[in-house]
Amino acid sequence: MNKIKVLLLATDCELTTILYDGLKNDFVVEKVIIEKAQKKKDILLRRIKGLGLIRVIGQILFLFFNKFLMFFSKKRISEIKCDNKFYSASIDSSVVLNVDSVNNDETLSYLKKSDADVVVVNGTRIIKKDILNLIDKPFINMHVGVTPKYRGVHGAYWALVNNDFENCGVTVHLIDAGIDTGGVLHQDTITVTKADNFNTYPYLQVFAALPLMKKAIYETSNKVFNIKDNYLESQLWSHPTLFEYLKYRIFSGVK
Asked: What letter would DSSP give residue 129?
């Protein structure tokens, strides 16, 4: 029996490597298209336009603070990877294609000739409609949050801030033109310990998502689309500001 072929569209980060490593033995990973990081200036201007200058300054201050927090996160991250038998794997360079954007002509050209049964997405910018409509194959996203309640970024962190443990988790969903608004295929929660913090939640989430993603790939490649409606309110979340993080850390104990 031929293995299902998967095309991975992703950003260059360790979570992508974990996702690749978790899929490569069950499926044929035809290609890993790695999107170049967006220019910081463009990101800042877009955030300022959408969120306002004061909030973006607070987010930048948190990013600097988080470099300090990351130093104290490394041991727990290593424990999570060890618990899930992930030992510093890497992506086979022969299947990697680096592109400036998942929406550019190079990506479009590859998709046209691809034999993949399913396109798996992790962490890229919003994929344009002409890319999504180019091939008659499902595009599936791994989102580190329970949608639609925790769309955007840092879904586990915001769920903990809201004391919403039953929605602190991960979603595997179909992709449409919106931000984490596609039909939900599978969801699960994560268990957070006192040792976990802002930087370790995504690692718990990606390992929780792997069996869900495998199941979704098997199902959608066989034209099975069991869309789940959890009737949750829809909300889009962004990065915390330094003030917000310190407030919730001190008064709510959310790290």
From this structure: H
